[in-house]
Amino acid sequence: MDIEKIYKESNALLSGHFILSSGHHSRNYLQSAKVLEDPKKAQMLAEELAKIIKESGIKAETICAPALGGIIAGYELARALGIRSIFVERKEGVMQLRRGFEVAKGEKVLVCEDIITTGGSALEAADIMEELGAEVVGFAGLANRGFCKRYGTSKEAKPTCKLPKDKPFFSLADFEFEIYKPEDCPMCKEGSKAVKPGSRT
Ligand code: ZN
C-alpha cells in the first residue's frame, strides 16, 4: 500500500512553511484529519495496520488513544482488530481517563495515535493505563514522523523519541521531514512567515 500517495491524494501532506507543535519549523506538515475525513480510507489504513499487529503476535484487548488526534485512528484500529476502543483526554493540561471508561487490572492495552512524532502524548496515555493497572503491550500510529523506531524496520530511534524501547511501535510508513529551530529556519531567513497548520483555514 502506497501510504504517501494516499496522504498526498487526500491533501494530508502539506507543503509550505509550518510551525510544528514542538515549536520547530518545517516545509511539510502531515494533516491526518484530511485522510481520516474519508471513512473508507480510515478503515483501509486501519486494516493495514491491524494486519501488521496481528502478524507480530502481539495481542491487545483494548485500544487507548490520546484525544483528539488519536481518536479516529484508534477507533478504526479497534474495529479492524475486533477489540474495544477508549480514549484519554487532557483536562487542565493533565491527561486523564474520563467519561466512565474503565480498564481492568492486567488488561492488555495498545496505545494508538494518528501520527507519532516523539510519542509524548502516547506515552502520557500509556502512563495512565499503567497507573490504572492495565498492561501496555505496544504503540501504534498510522504515520511515523521518523523519530521513533517502527516495528519491522532497522532504522534506530532518535534520542528525542519518548516511546519505551522494550515495546513495539507499529506504523504504516515513515514521513521524515527536515525540521528547524526558528532561529535557524531558512524560510524565516528569506522573510517568509510560518503558519500553524491547524489554524490555517
Ligand atoms: Zn521558519
Task: Tell me what the structure shows.
- This protein has 201 residues and is of the alpha/beta class.
- It has a domain of 140 residues: Rossmann fold.
- It is 29% helix and 28% strand.
- It contains 6 helices and 9 strands.
- Strands 5-4-3-6-7-8 form a 6-stranded mixed sheet, with helices on both faces.
- A hairpin with a 2-residue loop joins β4 and β5.
- α3 crosses α4.
- The chain is globular, with a radius of gyration of 17 Å.
- The two termini are 30 Å apart.
- The mean pLDDT is 94.
- It binds zinc ion (ZN).
- The site of zinc ion has 7 residues, from α6.
Whole-number radius of gyration?
A: 17 Å
CATH topology of the domain at 38-177: Rossmann fold
Bound molecules: zinc ion
Low-confidence stretches: none
Structural class: alpha/beta
* Secondary structure tally, helices: 6
User: Which whole number gives the mean pLDDT?
Assistant: 94
- The share of residues in extended strands comes to 25-35%
Regarding quaternary structure, what we see is: single chain
Which class of the domain at 38-177 in CATH terms? Alpha Beta
* Order of helix and strand elements from N to C terminus: HEEHHEHEEEHEEEH
